[in-house]
Every structure is written in structure tokens, then in C-alpha cells.
Amino acid sequence: MKVADLFKKDLFQDFKLVAGSDGLNKDITAVSVMDTPDGYQWMRGGEFLLSSGFVFKQEPEIFINFLSNISNKDIAALGIKFDRFLPKLPRDAINMADKFSLPLIEIPVSYRWSDIIDVIYHQLIQEGQQNSSEDKDVSGTLFSQKRVDVYKLLSSLSAELQRKVVVKAPQLGLCHVFCPCNAVIETNESTESASALLFQTGSSDEQVSQRGPLHICIKTTKTAPIKRIAIFSISQDTPIELGIVLTSGEQTPSKRQENLMIRAISMLQALALEAALVSNEAMAKRERFLENVCLGFYDSSAIITERAQELRIKLTFPSLVMLEVSASGNDPRLWTPFPALSFRRENHWVIIADAKEVKKEKLQALAKEKDLWFLVSSNANNPLEIHRSYKEVKQVLQWVKNFDTPLPPGVYHSYESNLYAVLSNLGKLPESESLWKRYWKPLLDIKTGRHAVTALQLMNSLIKCDFNAKLTAKDLHLHYNTVRNYLSELEDLLHVDFMNSHHRLALVLAYFVDHFCKNLHNDG
């Protein structure tokens, strides 16, 4: 093993070469930790010498002599933890290391000596094994460019680490425990073992580190026997969680364990991306088929059914069509639909769902959580009726977009847009003008006076709150008694009784006539 291998083989990603680059070709035959200024006397040559710098804390100048002495012992390299006892190396020390071709390596403070020793000796042992085959060596497997069997990879990883390895990778169909004895156990969220921690979230997480998209944390089982599991996870593109079950004396994974786990999850991610690329082509065909069904390109239910079977799409009836639209106009890529039968069109998702499985309460909660509109059609009872259902929700989309005030996130059905269409045509009836003059025009003529709100504001809020005085007071941020007095005055001015259902209906109709026929406002 050469000194350069520490960097070339990416064993220690955050080691930094400070000086002595001409000596990178030196052989490393052992690792030693130096804790005395004269420790070089016991060196045999070829050592990667590790030091915290403590022995030079009081007398930094003796470090120059120390470099001269260890160079005569043919030391392979010297690794020092800076920022602990030595803030930086003197310029003379750097020049001397370059002169003697002695690699000086800066080691981050977070490293444990045992981690470094473990990794290097493992590498030395591997290089010494002439007859070991690549398929029995997990490190060789992880560096291989050949396509590997994912089960074989993870079983080898478990055997190499002599620890149970748990993995959750939906793209690869993995949710298993791999044991050192080559046993493979399928698992899920109800599994009574450390593997179930892959499904848990909560305050029991202990953050270890974050490296770009890779998150490393420690989770602890809540039931006896208590176990700790180090979980390496990637949430972007192809979510993967890979865990190693630690032994009773281990608080965190060793550096060697960490390196192997990182390489393993990197390979799993590559395999998952491969699987995603293959599945994307089939997914595109499915989406185009669903889009063509919604657009009415087929004129035979039999053809639709046959084509669906070829694409392994299960159409159930009665079904309905939903549009999933961002209520705030966000990029549709920021959210994705939950059913499998869906495709993206323009700036929304189109979903074909089993009518029996659509629960309004769940949709309502999801809409509020994700800031969405769910626009729902009436039921389609056969494949050809899906086109009609799709046209219905397109009309609902136009309705929610053109509403006078922005509609809140929620679920909106096609029958609601039908009612809206009826109300929008009220102004075309000859009786609408007299209705408006009788019930709505007086609101425009009433002076505000000492009141905090206008009569028009009060009536709009009252209709919005379904003639509930308490809700109206809350909506207008007024005291309930104040609103009650205002409403009493309004009844007298309009000659109506808000408890009378016919008067309430007349006021609501007049509201919609006013909304859709603004030209009546100018009628004297």
C-alpha cells in the first residue's frame, strides 16, 4: 500500500496533504501512534506515524528536529491533527518535509486513531491475500464496474462487517435484513426488530453527519433488547435507507464500517437509478395511454380494455377523474399524486381513481397540508365515460380559476361547478334586474355613517357565513353585539327578515346576479 493510496482509493476523503508530495510513492507497512518526542527510536521504517501534536505543544521548535530524525528512519508518512494542540505548521517544518520527501498529512480532529488503524490494516491484509476471489470480497465488489447481484452485494457486506445490515429501497424492491450467516429476512413496519427502525421517525434520532444528499443518524430500539442502528439514507431521486446494527459496545460506526456503508449505498443508488431509467420508458407508455383515454382518442371500450391489459393497467369501475392542482400556482414538480393511474398535463396532474376508494375527508386533509385543489368528476361506469368525466373536471378547473375571490385549498366536485354555471346565468333572466333592485341596490345607497363597515361589506360577509351572526362577527373582527345591532338596522332598511328562508334565498340570488351582472350597478 502506497501513501498515495490514502487519497487515490478514497479511503480518507478529508485527509489533506500539506507537504512532501515527492514521497507519495512510499510503501506503508504499518501504523503507529507517537506520544513522545523520542518515539522515532522504536520505528522500523514504513510506518504511517500518527500524532495529535501534544508533545510539541510547549516547544514547537523541537518539531523541526523531530522531522529530521524520523526521515532517517524511512517513515512512510506523518499524520497530525491540527487545531487541537498545533494551530498550524511552521514554514520551516513544511520546507523540511519537502526536502526529505516526507508526506505531512493533516488529519481532521474528529478521527479516532482506531478508525484509521482499522482501515489501513484491513487494506494491508487484503493486499496480502493472493488467492481471495473478488466475489468473496465486499470491498472488491463495491469497486467493481460490473453489474452485481444486489442480494449478493448486501449479503457480502453483512459478512464483511459481521453485523446485520438492513435496507429499504423501494425502487429496487428491497425491504430486508441481511445477516452475516447469509440469511435474508423480509421485513416491514410491524417487524419486531431493529430493522423496523427504518420505518420510524421521531426524537430518538441522533444526528451523526450530513454529507451532501447523504444523511447519517443513529436510532435506538424502544423495546428490549435495546439496540442501536446506524442509518445511512439518501432521500433525493431514489430514496434509500441502509442500516448497520451495532453491537452492545458500539455507540457509532467505525470509520471502516462507515466507508463500506457509504460505498454500498452509492452502488445501491446507481442500481436504483438504472432501474428508474428502465421503468421510465414503460411509465411513459402508460401515461400516454391514460392521456389518450381522457382525451377521447378511443371509440371502443374493448380496445381500451385490451390496451390496458397489455400495459398492466387495472381499470376499475365506477371510477372518476380528478385534477390535482396547486392552489398557489407552485411548480407541479414540487408535489406528486398518490395513485398509480396518473399523468401530468400542463401545470396539473390528472388522476383516474376507483370511486369507492376516494374519501373526501382524506383528500380534504391532504389538500390543506399540500396547498392543493382536488377537482373531482362524477362517476364513469365504463372506459368510454372516462372522457366525459375528464371534460367535467376541466370545467371545474375553469370555475375555480375564474372565481371572484381565490378559493382555499380543498376538494371541489363537478356538481358544484354545475350549480355555479346555473347561478352565473341568472343575469340573463328578465326577472333578475327587478330582483337586484329590490334586494341588492339599496345596499349600495346606504351611507356608512358611524358604522365600522359598509352595508355591502356586512351583507357579503353574512352570506359568506351562511347568515350566522357569530361567524360574521368573527369574519369582520367585530364584537358580536355590534354585528347584531347592525343586522337589525339592515333588516329594517331592506324590509326583510333574516330568519325567513325566502328572504335569505332572495338575498343570495341577488348577490349572484350582482356578481355576474356588474352593469346593473349603473342602472338608475
What does it look like?
Strands 8-7-6-12-11-10-9 form a seven-stranded antiparallel beta sheet, covered by helices on one side. A five-stranded mixed beta sheet has the order 1-5-4-3-2. By secondary structure, the protein is an alpha+beta fold. It is 40% helix and 17% strand. Mean pLDDT is 81; it is low at 131-136, 141-147 and 519-524. Strand 11 (228-234) and strand 12 (240-245) form a beta hairpin. It is built from 17 helices and 17 strands. The chain is elongated, with a radius of gyration of 36 Å. The chain folds into four domains: 5-127, HprK N-terminal domain-like (Udp-n-acetylmuramoylalanyl-d-glutamate--2,6- Diaminopimelate Ligase, Chain: A, domain 1, 3-Layer(aba) Sandwich), CATH 3.40.1390; 134-274, 2-Layer Sandwich (Beta-Lactamase), CATH 3.30.450; 296-418, no CATH class; 425-522, Arc Repressor Mutant, subunit A, CATH 1.10.10.
Which features characterize this protein?
524 residues; alpha+beta; Beta-Lactamase; seven-stranded antiparallel β-sheet; elongated; disordered C terminus
Counting structural domains, the number is: 4
Structural class: alpha+beta
By CATH, the architecture of the largest domain is named 2-Layer Sandwich
Q: Shape from CA axes?
A: elongated
Pfam family, one: HTH_30
Organism: Acetomicrobium mobile (strain ATCC BAA-54 / DSM 13181 / JCM 12221 / NGA)
InterPro entries: CdaR-like_regulators, PucR_C-HTH_dom, PucR_C-HTH_sf, PucR_dom
Protein name: Sugar diacid utilization regulator
